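Researcher: Last one for today. Full complex below.
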Amino acid sequence: MDELIRMTAAELSAAVTAGDVSAAEVTQAHLERIDAVDGRVRAFLHVAAEDALAQAREVDRKRAAGQPLGTLAGVPVAVKDLFTTVGAPTTCGSKILEGWYPPYESTITGRLRDADAILIGKTNMDEFAMGSSTENSGYGASHNPWDLAKVPGGSSGGSAAAVAAYEAPLALGTDTGGSIRQPASVCGIVGTKPTYGGSSRYGVVAFASSLDTPGPFGRNVLDTALLHEVMSGHDPLDSTSIDAPVPPVVAAARHGDVSGMRIGVVTDLSGAGYQPGVMTRFTEAVELLESLGAKVTELSCPHFRYALPAYYLIAPSECSSNLARFDGMRFGLRTGGGSAEEVMAQTRAAGFGTEVKRRIMLGTHALSSGYYDAYYGKAQQVRTLIIQDFEAAFSQVDVLVSPVTPTTAFRLGERADDPMAMYLADLCTIPANLAGNAAISVPCGLADEDEMPVGLQVMAPPLADDRLYRVAAAVEAAFNARLGHPLLTESKGLS
Amino acid sequence: MPITRDEVAHLARLSRLALSDAELDHLAPQLDQIISAVAQVQEVAADGIPPTTHATGLANVFRDDEPVACLTPEQALSGAPAVEMQRFKVPRILVEE
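Model: Here's the assembly. Have a good evening.
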């Protein structure tokens, strides 16, 4: 069984398709792993044991009947608990949705089912995807498999922890300000924020609609690309979905070659507040890319310093509007007495956690008359300037690189009631969300101070997601060659 | 511009959040700190810069007006806190004077 959980998604799918192992055996092995370690990691809010085995038996039946199998045949995938899934609860990490069973399926989980993947369970997250540690979950925090006293990042921390703990080879997350890349970075795995509109938001419970981007996690670059390809593509049910071919991410992941590629180092994403060990590994990764034949230049994106404040006006504004639907009238929690309006206010006070309340009120303030121009309106102009910074940069280079997050995983509780300190975790990831670009986090070593993983962020223009995988595959291959094994095998938190 | 506890209480009412006094005491200084930090956007000389609401530049998206399958009433009501006669049952919304 231990052998099955260590296999890559690509290997598992090939083995299931060839009949070397059944999907049921693969699923059973991962369910046993979850049983063995998830009491400590707490990555899952719901383990769909029986349903997953039923899905697996159906894959095995199709194979026995000689029917063709999908790209992810028999591969378990952990799903962030904000994708609606028929037959499994969907809580968004919130008490206001405790016990809610969605009546419809998200486009992306539907595509995974069509690709014969096994949806093995729903993962923990910061409530409504607001946070960088999973500590804002209404159901308790998840733990970093490298060091259980530390956060797995967030908001998609449960998904990242599940993959890093070998509970699933792949996972789905969403990235609104860094919620895939930051947890991938601090858990030592790969995570991608696709181009905005490249992956469907239908059935993804909304936080900030102009920023929310579903994306993949994997333990290696190729697996991540396989999930990226399966989940992506135009969806008529999402009006912001881009009607264009999916960038050739899998082909790029198989050909990690950066010779002649122009790579720009964003000088604005460094300096005070960055952990020395993070900067050391980042600088080494840049030198590595240069040694592999990339042409590296430094450049400045002067408005990136305003990305964080602009984000903390735009995202809360959109959230204050989106979360108005949680009113206790049609679904979810209803509590309190009196008029409908009184019941709404009591339900929302009881069902939402502190960070969600903070952001709803912040957004309500930023959108209120008298403040709109100074806050929300100004933030939207800053968004334009950040897009212009990216356009200027991409006229000179093919991709940009930076650290993913200024520090390695911090200790549980360390920033829990200090919102401004927590928000800094997204300093480097937010610009790509504001501009709708594609970006990836790929492991680039351990920080000397604490032996915790560091990620390299690669950013590409919209619909050039394949460039991310070219660079990430080259970095991964060079590191694996240097270490003699994948970085993740050095994780000792669960041993 | 600092934000007072009274203003935060007003925001809570606008947001339909029945916060306790303890929560207001806790959140008011934090919101003030966050709002002063995000006010940095006002330093940027952005006169004449068009706002961006959405990164892809897509305008309105239309589809053909064709009937498609939708949720049944039972599915639509499946998560409702209270149901009566195939409808969402809610507390009274009008108050008699």
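Chain A touches chain B through 70 residues (CB under 8 Å). The longest strand of chain A covers residues 438-446.
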